[in-house]
Amino acid sequence: RVLPLRARPVVQAAAGAFHSLAVLREGALYAFGLGADGRLGLGHQLNATLPEMVPLHQFVRQAAAGATHSACCDSAGCLYTWGDGAKGALGHLGPRPRKNKNDTGLASMPSWESALRLGEALQHSAGAAPAAELTPRPVAALRHVRVVQVQCNERETVALDGDGVVYVVGQASAQAAGASPTLPRKTPETSPLAGIGRARAPSFGGGGPKPAASSKQKSAVVAHRFHAPVLEVASSARHVVVRTTEDTYFAWGGGDGGAGLGVGDAKGRARPTMLPPWN
Q1: Do 155 and 83 form a contact (C-beta atoms < 8 A)?
Q2: From the CB of residue 166, how many other CB atoms can be counted at a distance below 10 Å?
Q3: What is the pLDDT of residues 222-269, one digit of tens each?
Q4: What is the pTM of this model?
Q5: Is the Cβ–Cβ distance between 142 and 82 less than 8 Å?
Q6: 3-class secondary structure for 132-185?
Q7: DSSP states of the chain as a string?
């Protein structure tokens, strides 16, 4: 029993490699465990031996914990990700925007508190992944998608929308599509059954020259649309399984040679493959 939450009803929990998340009935999100790369979403990289509330002022519907990153969706269907984004699993294109470029977040604090907070930030930001997010950040590429379920694995974030379409965020998705992971797109493309959309370069307004794509941008969003809407998604460290409304199952990914996919052989799959009927 997690004592700090014993009197507060938990409706859903998620466990990553070295951290855990808990969603309360009231919609609050708590995190505890290893804090490296901001996977707890608490704004720093400190470990949390007891549950601490994630500073997300939205009603959280469901949360997921991967190996080094985390994700959640709120009651409005917005998808948030945080933690290690080096493998593109967060789906963010560039640094987090600031409301005011001159606002450091320290001006309103007393001088001693500012110094303390700045010292902590410098101390605990050392060694973070270049693309790490220390607090939950909305995934802009899916801002028009109503996400109802999310899962995380080692390299990707898998989201299910209210229409039964599966979106996969991550570098592995772009590579599986045969596209360069350095050319992310801002909006996903849907694809037919067992197909994967191709990543495309982002478009820029105006008639000026187009900026070169950064080698640090490794995220792509790929949509999987099946013959029937998907009801449920599940993910292990390296593979994904989905169940449709017609009670059919599809799996893709690797790990252990693909032996855990249930498709009849030990080969990994880059694209969704239908599982054979069960006896």
Answers
A1: no
A2: 22
A3: 899 998 999 999 998 888 999 999 999 999 888 566 567 887 777 888
A4: 0.75
A5: no
A6: CEEEEEECHHHCCCCEEEEEECCCCEEEEECCCCEEEECHHHHHHCCCCCCCCC
A7: --GGGTTS-EEEEEE-SSEEEEEETTS-EEEEE--GGGTT-SSS---EEEEEE----S-EEEEEE-SSEEEEEETT--EEEEE--TTSTT---SSPPPS-TT--S-TTS-HHHHHHHHHHHHHHHTT--TT-EEEEEE-GGGTTS-EEEEEE-SS-EEEEETTS-EEEESHHHHHHTTS-TTS--SS-B---TT--PPP-PPP--SSSPPPPPPTT----EEEE--SS-EEEEEE-SSEEEEEETTS-EEEEE-SGGGTTS-SSSS--EEEEEEPPPP-
The larger pLDDT score, comparing residue 253 to residue 208, is at 253
Name the pairing type of β-strands 269-274 and 249-253. Answer: antiparallel
Query: Which pair of tokens denotes residue 9?
Result: 């009803």
With tokens 């959640």, the residue in question is 72
Tokens 């599940």 identify what position? 234
Residue-wise pLDDT for 137-168, tens only, equals 999 989 999 999 999 998 899 999 999 999 99
C-alpha to C-alpha distance for 229 and 235, rounded to whole angstroms:
18
Please enumerate in sequence order all residues whose Cβ is within 8 A of that of 135, keeping only pairs 6 or more positions apart, or say none.
38, 41, 42, 43, 54, 55, 56, 82
In total, the chain counts a number of residues equal to 279
